[in-house]
Amino acid sequence: MATLGAQHKHKVTVVGSGNWGTTMSKLVAENVKENPTLFEETVQMWVYEEDVVIPKESRHYDAGSETANKPQKLSHLINTIHENVKYLPNITLPPNVVANPDVVDSVKDSTILIFVLPHQFIPRVCDQLIGKTMPWARAICCTKGVDVGEKGIRLMSEAIGMRLNIYCGALSGANIASEIAQEKYSETTIAYDPPPMDSRNPTPKGSPTSSQVDLISPSKTVPSARSARLKALPSEYPPLSHENVRKLFHRPYFHVRMVSDVAGVSLGGALKNIIALAAGFVDGLGWGDNAKAAVMRVGILEMVRFGKAFFADSVKTSTFTEESCGVADVVTSCMGGRNFRCAKMAIERGETIFEIEQKELNGQKLQGTSTAYEVNSFLKSQGMEKDFPLFTAVYNILEGNVKPEQIPELIEPKQ
Ligand SMILES: NC(=O)C1=CN([C@@H]2O[C@H](COP(=O)(O)OP(=O)(O)OC[C@H]3O[C@@H](n4cnc5c(N)ncnc54)[C@H](O)[C@@H]3O)[C@@H](O)[C@H]2O)C=CC1
Ligand SMILES: O=C(CO)COP(=O)(O)O
């Protein structure tokens, strides 16, 4: 743990190294370098290790080299050529991004953990980290998805926070990773709302112990989420105020707006992926922009209804309408996102979207398909499938129960 006089600095780990994970590591690494009094210079990036052959079209391909056409460890490649040739090709990473294939080692001594894994891998990876993270670490979840189990539905930030017993906020927005990696302007929303003891205010009087407070969970549906305890950030660290969190993420090309609505930010990111599939289906049928706008409109209404129905205590409708993580993310995802593109291709080629994902994404993962299944299983358990006709239609199309051509009649309100 590095110190600055009496002050510790924050050490940052990015848990994940896919298309968005690698982009996030790049921009955070640029910011820690510019804020040396707040953050340690090295950003750890956990890499789910795999063997990768440098593609022939890569600028790093050298036909004469010993390793040409030979598989090499992805983490080794990232640390030597400073590029993730598989998940973020042609983008140079700052040398202070250090790829680490050992997830436990990657989070050692880190006070800021940025989770950017496909949502299906979050529970298993977090389970490996139980008891291994700093007790006062704070997390930001950049993953888009929900965690549905027998007990109900949880935000991914809750799934992380509950498992690791730490506070977890959320980052989500209209953020196609490849554009941000190329430093093209975009906006994002960060929801970060830990108890006040993380600011430089004294520990609130009457708290259970001097260093522990209740972690307020936004979710109504998983009661256990409210029982987690949160350890205060020691005063030797710079406060993790909105201002300092913003310093970690905001770039001239990546504009951050800080809010407190973790549920709204998380649900926007998760549910827009289902809407993007619907947009891809109608586009694949050649129905044009009006049809796409129609499913987007209905999808946005269902997103808002979902928040109000299941996260009423915490979610703010204005988060969906005013922030990047809501309508803006629906728009960008329905124009150029992977879920949209793969759904469209599936219709055009007459293949399943699962086949298209395998063939076209080179290991990248769709989130809309599993989210459609998870949301459907939760809605079924609540007897509320009919209240969310677009989400239900997408699930039934994936299951082969209905055809994409039926979308207009399926989402038409019943008179
Ligand atoms: N790519 C994008 O434009 C954006 C993605 N996101 C979200 O970020 C999250 C992560 O997505 P990406 O970084 O794009 O990933 P990706 O889809 O590009 O890559 C998949 C990742 O999963 C890893 N992986 C494969 N099997 C694994 C396992 N068993 N355990 C752990 N990891 C495994 C791969 O190594 C790879 O890093 C998703 O929830 C996505 O919705 C959010 C905003 C933008
Ligand atoms: O979340 C995204 C854009 O904000 C990326 O969406 P896809 O996963 O569909 O590419």
TrEMBL record:
Active-site feature positions: K272 (proton acceptor)
Top EC class, one word: oxidoreductase
EC number: 1.1.1.8
Substrates-to-products reaction catalysed: sn-glycerol 3-phosphate + NAD(+) = dihydroxyacetone phosphate + NADH + H(+)
Family assignment from sequence similarity: Belongs to the NAD-dependent glycerol-3-phosphate dehydrogenase family.
Entries under SUPFAM superfamilies matching the protein: 6-phosphogluconate dehydrogenase C-terminal domain-like (SSF48179), NAD(P)-binding Rossmann-fold domains (SSF51735)
Record region (Disordered): 189-218
Protein name listed in UniProt: Glycerol-3-phosphate dehydrogenase [NAD(+)]
GO molecular function: glycerol-3-phosphate dehydrogenase (NAD+) activity; NAD binding
Compositionally biased spans, kind Polar residues: 200-218
Organism, as annotated: Melanomma pulvis-pyrius CBS 109.77
InterPro entries: 6-PGluconate_DH-like_C_sf, 6PGD_dom2, G3P_DH_NAD-dep, G3P_DH_NAD-dep_C, G3P_DH_NAD-dep_N, NAD(P)-bd_dom_sf
Keyword NAD appears in the UniProt entry: yes
Gene Ontology CC entries for this record: cytosol; nucleus
GO biological process: carbohydrate metabolic process; glycerol-3-phosphate catabolic process
